[in-house]
Specification:
2 copies of one chain form a homodimer. Chain A is an alpha/beta fold. Chain A contains 12 helices and 12 strands. In chain A, strand 8, helix 11 and strand 9 form a beta-alpha-beta unit. In chain A, helix 1 packs across helix 2, helix 1 crosses helix 3 and helix 8 packs parallel to helix 9. The radius of gyration of chain A is 28 Å and the shape is elongated. Chain A starts with 29 loop residues before the first helix and ends in a 12-residue tail after the last strand. Chain A binds a DNA duplex (30 and 30 nucleotides) through helix 2 and helix 4. Chains A, B: InterPro entries: HTH_LacI, LacI/GalR-like_sensor, Lambda_DNA-bd_dom_sf, Peripla_BP_I.
Chain lengths: 359, 359
DNA sequence: AAGGCAGATGTTTACGTAAACATCGCGGCG
DNA sequence: CGCCGCGATGTTTACGTAAACATCTGCCTT
């Protein structure tokens, strides 16, 4: 029953065709294009997908018809037919940390390169409820795979209702035994930081760590501690911040009071920034009196006062590996596990120097 | 023809059902749930969508069956049927600027709140080809609306092939006559910056502007110029950076040479950071010798040396308005135009002070 | 010259969902 | 007592695409 054989006037209300409930206005379908081009819709499909076996002449006609009607394939129908969405979901906490953002960006770029779109699932507040909410939204979402930029204990806390058969890759975590994990080599970087300062002649190295409950912070602190012990040094007490520059400032005011503190390894560049301010305020010169080293190498690090020696994280590589891993897992359908570590690189600038001569 | 009346052994190859080409494993469909619950698939649909008119008993049976089979609705089929994806596409340049990231984050949160997902369309390099590429990817994408975080001249440069009937909202642009635009009140903020410095007693204000070709930079520079002229002051020559701290440093080395320069308005906080470093290096004290004001109020601004006076941008509000506008446009199907400006707020910290007494 | 084969195109069908319409049973009311 | 109406549920159909299969044309091979 074709609508064409009904006279238009028989439908006074008008617009009877395509009684969409949605908000999108009518668009041309393959059938429309086929009708205009005088071919079957299957031929339109072939042209649309660039298949061989279509005469150049026919192809031109179809393309012309497509253009005239402004045809664009309906991706919902496509996804339904093909059984895949060509979309990767990325679930992450607030994009307030440099690392998450850079990783996300790299993921988006890599995904685009592979022909995949990226759907962003933000979790406003890192509470269990919020995380669970994001995952339940995810359940209804049109994604073929998921990349989680989140510490795994929060992942665990939420009774995860991950859609079955959707592959997951996790960043920033140490759960390689349960998930596929991609992460920066936090331990290696931290050891390099400590070694750099010891090599300069410092007796020991203080650590301005990240917040309690953060695995990244934990691993950096552990590695710092281990590196000192291995070198036969006594680790000073751990000082904690919350990643923010402000917390680094507060911790710095405290550290400035310790005259025996000549070298500080801050767990990220923002806290190092606050630390620099506190030391400056208290008249402790960097690097003459105190050496400071950061972690991340944010773009601004080279413009701190003084320019910050820090450990460069290759977030682009992390993001790329996430996409690569998750797509491979999709293809082999695989419960692959294990952790891929991306090395850091020490960037020496002007905030580290040998300790002041003993007086 | 139901598959149920064919004996399983008649298909030796196995797996004949669901010969998916895609990568997703088989999931239960409504029909499967219906069969198990002993109802029709339409009843399953009603339960799935929370419609009334289903006995509580039936509902429970269906829910049990759903749970047993791990049913989750197929969003592709849903989108196809409903004619909408409940997804907003966000197209943006590299997420290296604070503003873009914060705006994106706010968009994602607002969209989630409205039940919409956000698909990210990154444009690696701001060349015409890249932008065009992103838009052509967009064409095939399952989105109901698009938010563009990009300067409009790049939008124009790309021969935009926006899907018809997909609503667009643009951020960071002055094309209110052609698009729906949401932006920070760049001009108002810049005037406030200049006024703040003049009120402190400075004779004039220098401007460390953003790169040539950026509308945001242009508008900030124009407003700076206009505010000075209105106040009867002579605008010094414009100095340009490229938004990076490094460029601010380079420009700062130059500015430090001008002894008559007592106040600088930097077009963003990163450049202000570089400027602070340059001034410090050249022995020009901030704020005693030179006052510096930034723009953006990035989280670290309060930890600069000295803490930076700057103009706070409310990116969260910008993002929220983007979503609100684009959804409204979708609903009214509307070619609405015009610009919505979000005001800035002056945050006075310690980098500005009255000029040094004339000697 | 006949058979066949390959390439071009058309036809059928299914993907999973949900609107529209059909049916069924039961209680209330005239 | 019978009919109407309504609530609960089932059946049909369409959304747009693309795989699988069917058909048709014409040229090449023997």
């Amino acid at each position: 029953m074709d609508t064409a054989d009904r006279t238009p006037t028989s439908v006074p209300g008008g617009g009877r065709r395509r009684p969409r409930t949605g908000t999108r206005a009518q668009t041309a379908s393959m059938a429309d294009v086929a009708r205009l081009a005088g071919v079957s819709s299957q031929t339109v499909s072939r042209v649309s997908n660039g298949y061989a076996g279509v005469t150049d002449e026919t192809r031109q006609q179809v393309l012309a018809a497509m253009k005239e009607l402004g045809y664009r394939p309906n991706s919902a129908a496509r996804a339904l037919k093909r059984g895949e969405f060509r979309t990767i979901g990325v679930i992450t906490f607030s994009l307030s940390t440099t690392g998450n953002v850079r990783t996300l960006e790299a993921i988006a770029n890599s995904a685009a390169h592979e022909g995949y779109a990226v759907t962003l699932l933000p979790v406003a507040v890192p509470t269990q409820d919020e995380v669970r909410g994001a995952f339940s939204r995810l359940e209804e979402l049109a994604v073929d795979a998921v990349i989680v930029i989140m510490e795994v204990h929060l992942l665990d806390a939420a009774t995860i209702a991950l859609p079955p058969h959707v592959q997951v890759v996790v960043v920033d975590s140490d759960a390689g035994d349960r998930y596929t994990v991609v992460d920066t080599d936090q331990a290696g970087g931290s050891r390099a930081a400590v070694r750099h300062l010891l090599d300069l002649g410092h007796t020991t190295v203080w650590h301005l760590g990240g917040p309690d409950g953060s695995f990244a912070a934990q691993r950096r602190a552990d590695a710092w501690h281990a590196a000192l012990v291995e070198a036969g040094r006594t680790p000073p007490p751990l000082v904690r911040g919350d990643w923010s520059a402000e917390s680094g400032y507060r911790a710095g005011l405290d550290l400035a009071g310790h005259q025996d503190c000549t070298a500080v390894f801050a767990a990220n560049d923002q806290m190092a920034l606050g630390l620099l301010r506190a030391l400056n305020e208290r008249g402790r010169r960097v690097p003459e009196d105190v050496s400071v080293i950061g972690f991340d190498d944010i773009p601004e690090a080279g413009s701190f006062l003084p320019p910050l020696t820090t450990l460069h994280q290759d977030f682009a590589e992390v993001g790329r590996l996430c996409v690569e891993n998750v797509l491979r897992k999709m293809r082999i359908g695989g419960g692959e596990r294990g952790t891929t570590l991306v090395p850091t690189r020490l960037v020496v600038r002007e905030s580290t120097a040998p300790p002041p001569a003993r007086t």
